[in-house]
Amino acid sequence: MIRRIFWVLLIAGTHFVLGRLVIPLATNRLLAITDNGQSFTWLVQLLIWITRVLYFPIITLSLYSREWFPGNLIYIPIVINSLLWGILVYGVLRVIKKIGR
């Protein structure tokens, strides 16, 4: 049981870190492109796509009122999202492992 929780938390932590890293990368690339007047490159489109995938199903986070999650409380739905991803990915890996036997 503890081993399962460890793997779920490891996957969720990795998801959280990747989710937090991709936003500054995408923002940085978008600002560089708009400053130069260039069009979107494949890298920017890839970073936007990765952001959409990582933040699914809370991609509508922008629709939340900032009064609900002031300051650093915005991390609450992001952590919950990462935990959901951790549980889902771990479950899928377990099913794949059982099918492979």
What key phrases describe this protein's structure?
101 residues, mainly alpha, 3 helices
Structural write-up:
- α1 packs antiparallel against α2 and α1 (about 1-35) packs across α3 (about 75-100).
- The mean pLDDT is about 85.
- By secondary structure, the chain is mainly α.
- Helices cover about 75% and strands about 0% of the residues.
- It has one domain (about 1-100).
- The chain is built from three helices and no strands.
Could you tell me the radius of gyration in angstroms?
A: 17 Å
SS-derived structural category: mainly alpha
Number of strands: 0
Number of domains: 1
Number of helices: 3
Taking the sheet with the most strands, its summary is:
none
How many angstroms does the end-to-end distance come to?
Answer: 21 Å
Which residues form runs of ≥5 with pLDDT under 50? none
Shape by Cα distribution: globular
Strand content: under 5%
Which sequence of SSEs, written as H and E, runs from N to C? HHH
Question: Could you report the average pLDDT, rounded to the nearest whole number?
Answer: 84
Task: Bin the helical content.
Answer: over 70%
